[in-house]
TrEMBL record, chain A:
Name this polypeptide is given: PTS glucitol transporter subunit IIA
Residue ranges occupied by any PTS EIIC type-2 domain in the UniProt entry: 12-445
Keyword set, alphabetical order: Cell membrane, Membrane, Phosphotransferase system, Sugar transport, Transmembrane, Transmembrane helix, Transport
Organism: Thermoactinomyces mirandus
CC per GO annotation: plasma membrane
Bilayer-crossing regions: 15-35, 47-68, 101-120, 127-145, 151-170, 234-252, 258-280, 315-333, 339-357, 364-386, 432-453
Alphabetical GO biological process terms: phosphoenolpyruvate-dependent sugar phosphotransferase system
From TrEMBL, chain B:
Organism of provenance: Thermoactinomyces mirandus
One GO term of the biological process aspect: phosphoenolpyruvate-dependent sugar phosphotransferase system
Residue span, Phosphotransferase system EIIB component type 2/3 domain: 3-54
Keyword annotations from UniProtKB, A to Z: Transferase
Gene Ontology molecular functions: protein-N(PI)-phosphohistidine-sugar phosphotransferase activity
Pfam families named in the record: PTS_IIB
Lineage top rank: taxon: Bacteria
Keyword GTP-binding tagged: no
Record bears the keyword Transferase: yes
Entry protein name: PTS fructose transporter subunit IIB
Residue ranges of the TM segments: none
């Protein structure tokens, strides 16, 4: 046994010591070759992840280098403690894919999927491999607090199972929202829909107390057209940069610099984001080939990324309206330290609002407003972890002051992040009190999810009745 | 050259899968196509004027009507070749009808 460990150390240590980007380049390229991807393509994929990690680091450096001093002045001149830079989702996804543990959590989720399919506990085959990062980041948070891989695995597995059940239960709603025939297999296991239970609590309040509000729903597509380019990435970067510059009382010249730096970095995050999608691609295709070959004859729905729902204008109208609301909430909510920037178009929230309310735009906006503080506080809570992890994978500039932090203001699964922190703290400090708090939180989470399933079953039964009527 | 526009939620993941798949398959079938990607929210009436074909994941609702052919490219994302083929066949048919 000792000999095996020694040998493994001999092989792996030099690779690990190279740092995250070189290591993931080697690991992903080798994995792709294992999946029988041609050597050239495999190396191309591996390189793209490495340059994406490096590229994110460069952009984060430009952004924090310019914004961090202004945000410090912002705190001084306004008295509002908003010093964490919001980089949006693409850097976080890249950073998470920069950790080898993400591949481990991916394996766990695939095994769960296969077992659940074989046991008929789900009807969804998940081919959205890329988005496993949402579960992986939860596992990484647990590990950040406790270094306890077992607890991290258990939490990821628990949430993974619920996500598959959720993908099944939402399917009739997807068909309804997008006029898809029953033969269309599209569904999604995306983590953002794990907020459905909480949203549904508020939706029921509307059903009982304010059903009349739906009368005032407006046409979402028209609103989106009017907003036009003002809602696009670079425009948001420009006016949020200017906003920070003005409130932190910078010179006119610096205000312009901040505005344009904001615009360019938000655009660049997306560009670099597309690089590492290409890196994960061979892996996604290989896993899908493997699973579909072994499941021949079994009929199933297919889980893809959420944007098939992006066809509905309501989710964009809600995101557009929620953006300025979020800025306001960020300024006044106690405990928030994020100044919204990269995540201000809340695509981590509005798809779930769309599914629960089925496109009732006013409900989406009002319930969305209630949800935003949860996202901001969750984003604040994970900022030290995000910053530390970015540093460890080489996607964070070393020259930046140690109190400068980054996060994502509207990261999917805000409640799950709090659960991860609780589980992580339990692992770090195993005592009765922590155990009780964690178990209670998990029980409450599960109870709410079960209640939600019941409501969705009722909804799906109505869909069935309408079909036969 | 045929200009195609693919769209998704962030212009990063799904639309790039569609872009890569369409460019690869249409090259195999002997057509010269170029696919751009965009966030669906950022599409205006003018944007679509620069393209011959629009390939969203599922058909979106805009405040204006879409004047170019729309092909729902969602099945490409299933990563199962047999399910993507009808999309490519439809695309090929539309390209032939464009007579470019």
């Amino acid at each position: 046994m000792d000999a095996i460990i020694k040998f493994a150390n001999l092989v792996f240590e030099p690779i690990i010591n190279l740092g995250a980007a070189p290591m993931m380049f080697i690991v992903l390229a080798l994995l792709a070759m294992l999946m029988r991807v041609p050597v050239g393509k495999a190396i191309e994929g591996g390189l793209k992840l490495a340059i994406a990690l490096t590229g994110m680091g460069v952009i984060i450096e430009i952004l924090t280098g310019n914004f961090a001093p202004a945000l410090q002045d912002f705190v001084k001149s306004t008295g509002i403690e908003l010093s964490i830079t919001d980089v949006g989702w693409a850097p976080l996804a890249t950073i998470t894919w920069g950790s080898a543990y993400t591949l481990y959590f991916l394996l766990i989720v695939i095994v769960i999927n296969i077992i659940m399919l074989i046991l008929n506990k789900t009807n969804t085959l998940d081919v959205d491999i890329f988005n496993v990062w949402h579960l992986a980041i939860i596992g990484l948070i647990v590990m950040y607090y406790s270094h306890n891989l077992l607890l991290a695995t258990l939490l990821v597995a628990f949430l993974g199972v619920l996500k598959f059940i959720n993908a099944d239960i939402m399917k009739p709603t997807f068909n309804d929202l997008l006029n898809m025939p029953d033969t269309n297999p599209t569904t999604t296991t995306h983590l953002n829909f794990m907020l459905n239970p909480l949203i549904m609590v508020f939706d029921k309040v509307f059903d009982k107390v304010f059903p009349f509000i739906d009368k005032y729903d407006f046409d979402a597509a028209t609103l989106n057209e009017k907003i036009g380019f003002w809602g696009s990435k670079f425009a948001i970067g420009v006016y949020l940069g200017a906003f920070v510059g003005i409130l932190s009382q910078q010179s006119i010249q610096t205000i312009f610099t901040l505005a344009f730096i904001g615009g360019v970095t938000l655009e660049l995050f997306s560009v670099v984001g597309t690089w590492f999608i290409a890196a994960v691609e061979p892996l996604s295709q290989g896993i899908t080939n493997f699973m579909s070959k072994r499941l021949k004859g079994r009929k199933f729905n297919i889980g893809i990324d959420w944007p098939f729902l992006a066809a509905r204008p309501e989710m964009w109208a809600a995101a557009n309206v929620l953006a300025p609301i979020m800025l306001l909430i960020a300024l006044i909510i106690p405990g928030n330290r994020i100044l919204p920037l990269g995540g201000i178009i809340a695509i981590g929230l509005t798809p779930a609002l769309l599914v629960v309310t089925r496109g009732r735009i006013l409900r989406m906006i009002i319930i969305g407003t209630i949800m935003l503080p949860v996202f901001l506080l969750s984003g604040t809570a994970i900022a030290p972890f995000v910053t530390e992890t970015a540093k460890s994978v080489g996607a964070f500039p070393s020259g930046v002051a140690s109190n400068v932090m980054i996060t994502h203001s509207t990261l999917e699964g805000p409640i799950e992040k709090f659960l991860a922190i609780l589980v992580g703290e339990l692992g770090a400090n195993f005592n009765i009190q922590n155990l009780a708090v964690t178990l209670l939180a998990l029980a409450a989470y599960l109870a709410l999810f079960i209640w939600y399933l019941k409501q969705m079953k009722k909804r799906n039964q109505k869909y069935e009745e309408e079909k036969t009527a | 050259m045929i200009r195609i526009l693919a769209a998704c939620g962030a212009g990063i993941n799904s639309s790039h899968q569609i872009k890569t798949a369409i460019e690869e398959e249409m090259k195999k079938r002997g057509f010269d196509v170029k696919v751009d990607t965009i966030v669906i929210k950022d599409i205006t009436e003018d944007t679509l004027k620069n393209y011959d074909i629009f390939t969203p994941i599922s058909k979106p609702k805009f405040s204006f009507s879409i004047e170019i052919p729309v092909i729902e490219a969602g099945p490409i994302l299933y990563r199962i070749p047999a399910m993507a083929d009808p999309v490519f066949d439809e695309l090929e048919q539309v390209i032939r009808n464009l007579k470019k």
